[in-house]
Amino acid sequence: ELQEKYDSHITNKNSARSLKDQDKLIALNNKSIIVACFDLQKVLVTPKSEVSIFYYKSKYATYNFTVYDIGNHKGYCYVWHESVAKRGANEIGSCLWKFLDTAANNKNIQEVIFYSDNCGGQNRNRFIFSMFQLAACVFNKKITHRFFEKGHTQNEGDSMHAVIENAKNRQQVVYTPEQWVTLIRMAKVTGTPYDVTEMSQKDFYNLKKLVIGQNWKTDEDGQQLKISKVREIVLLGNPDGRVDFKYEYTDAPKSLNIYKKRRGRPSCCSRADLQQLYDKPLPVDKKKLDGLLELCNKRDIPEMYHGFYRSLSYNKAKNTTEETVNNEETSTEEQSE
């Protein structure tokens, strides 16, 4: 049994690599198809400094979600910080919507193929898939999402993170999220700079609302849909709600009707289906904010940056547990639904 699992693991690793290499060749020669890898970079923290006083204080988090368009050799960054939004499926999906609405939104592009790791809380879940279904309909494009084998997620997009990390290591101090944005814009020494979008709260949508009334539980054969095992999903935005998926790359596709639960004809797809996720800045952990304000009061953070930190509000709830910003794993609240 262990040998079977290992053989399957290697087969899936090789299949994903082979498919991506094929897609890369197609994208380089066919401008009607975009092939892109996406990922969330390791958290960027402020204040960043070699001064020891900063080492013992909780840091403020800035998030950078990257999409690398392989065929056009172009990188896109979507940046926000922790009082703007969190870093779950809603946020990742909203960044992907922004990419589809801007970078990929022209009539010449007929298909977008995404590759990513298989983190369930962020990438492989019904909220992202439902957003893709809406985007496929609104933008009139075929959208395919494929997942790398666990432990073998290296891809062209990693170079973006490496370039930004190198720029970070060259920069001795960073005091605010805005400075991270500037650093990312200037990180690339040669070639086209990264296309950087500062995400505001109006750019983040509640994707959980999209799945209400949709069927993401049983396929057309009456079998339970195992989302955590899906390796490929294809969304055409069809009014009939048909979605194709595979558990193994070598399988024949299976189908799912996400509108099965609805009575009558499904409504026309519309951007209006997207509802804003947040309506006010998110509070920061009180212990964290107290530490940051202490650094301001002691002038360890220069006065010109105090306004940003003093504008933050803290979480007044008791027993709040601070998110450790160096932890790569996102909250899995999206998985528990």
From TrEMBL:
Ranges for domain DUF7869 come to 71-199
In terms of superkingdom, the source organism counts as Eukaryota
Task: Write one Pfam family the protein is assigned to.
Answer: DUF7869
Entries under InterPro entries matching the protein:
DUF7869 (IPR057191)
Question: Which PANTHER family has this protein been placed in?
Answer: DNA-DIRECTED RNA POLYMERASES I, II, AND III SUBUNIT RPABC2 (PTHR10773), PTHR10773:SF19
Q: What is the protein named?
A: DUF7869 domain-containing protein
